Amino acid sequence: MTSRYQIRNLSRRTKSENGFSASETALAELAARVNQAAKMQLGRSLAIRHVDAGSCNACELEIHALNNPYYALERFGLHFVASPRHADVLLVTGSVTANMKIALERTYAATPAPKWVVAAGDCACGCSLFHENYAVSGSVDKVVPVDLHIKGCPPNPKVLLEGLLALLEINAPSNAI
Fold it and tell me: Model pTM?
């Protein structure tokens, strides 16, 4: 039996936020620059391993948006991998919980050199309300060395791409880029 609330909700328009206002050509150019920097630095595409160390999943939604048809990182050669043994970058989100501390340390140890660690989001950078908690070990840099902090709650996909580009350009040999 349908209630009057269900009927009322069906007749209303959906309220949603406006989409991200970056132009498609600007995003394509940014992703192409990241891929070019990765090829100059590594000789191949960039492989990213995402590690959720204890987040609220807001950052994960933005990271997953990188793979949606709008951003489509795969078309530029950037891809997420399932194993840290195949990764160049560990993209860590969330304050590191006590339960995830050992898992993050093992993931870092399993990642081959050269490897970089990116702390994405305010929780991973140590700026969140979860930071001072009995079940939290702290920010990512208290557990493993971090090469880049990307702040934001959550950082949008364009900021994540800019961070990856900055990471590759900072760590590139001086004559490469």
Answer: 0.78
Q: What are the pLDDT digits (tens) for 58-69?
A: 999 999 988 888
Q: Rounded to whole angstroms, what are the CA distances from 86 to 7, 76, 89, 95?
A: 51, 18, 9, 24
Q: Where are the beta strands (DSSP E) in the chain?
A: 47-52, 79-80, 89-93, 96-97, 116-120, 136-138, 148-150
The string of pLDDT tens digits covering residues 33-90 is 777 777 777 777 789 999 999 888 999 999 998 888 887 778 777 889 999 999 989 9
Radius of gyration of the chain (CA): 19
**Positive or negative: CA dihedral 8, 9, 10, 15:** positive
Distances in Å between the Cα of 58 and the Cα atoms of 50, 52, 110 are: 14, 11, 26
Helix (H, G, I), strand (E, B) or coil at 39: helix
What length does the chain have? 177
Query: Helical H runs in 3-66?
Result: 4-11, 24-42, 58-65
Please give the structure tokens belonging to residue 161. Answer: 């791409």
